Amino acid sequence: MVTLSSPSPSLSFIEGGTCKSSHVSRVSFSGPGESSETNSILRDVHISERLLEDFTELARENTEKDLETCGTLAAFLEKGIFYVTTLIIPKQVSTSNSCQAMNEVDVFSIQNERELYPVGWIHTHPSQGCFMSSVDLHTHYSYQVMVPEAFGIVVAPTDSSKSYGIFKLTDPGGMEVLRSCSETGFHPHKEPEDGNPVYEHCSNVYKNSNLRFEIFDLR
Predict the structure, then answer these.
(1) In Å, how far are 13, 59, 151, 208 from 170, measured between CA atoms?
(2) What range(s) does the MPN domain occupy (predicted)?
């Protein structure tokens, strides 16, 4: 199933060919996990808040059954900015605290056909808080090692303090911790030697209300 953002059927571009500042706002969070690094070398990423809302709705059936749902976020790069225009929800096997994508070749095919970058992923915590588990961190490492700007979105509908978060591994600290970790399943990670946390909120991701997108639900 392919879902197009409304009102236009046009895909993968910014309305009018430009990104007006009135349509763009930084995604900001407060409290523990705030970005501890400068992002001068990271390119900005724009994503539609409606994409998050649509994903949450598509995941609702699983959420009500206490099952996680996951998807891949793909973007095109224009003038040094990543624009997330595609959400791909693959076939998957889920539990209350895990989600394993299946037939990932289908995801790669959609990305390659559109010449998109895998800039991140999104998944639900149907009955848990908004945080990155040790398993999530290993999943995310596979994205960020390819694209430094890669981010992970956690949607936590039952977390009254924060319904979603946009995270990345700290670099170099968190990246080195995950690079050297060979454990599987849920397990603790050591603290990075540079004193920063293993992961943090992204400070280079912006909500863009003018960004159109498409959703491929392959389940």
Answers:
(1) 30, 28, 11, 24
(2) 45-173
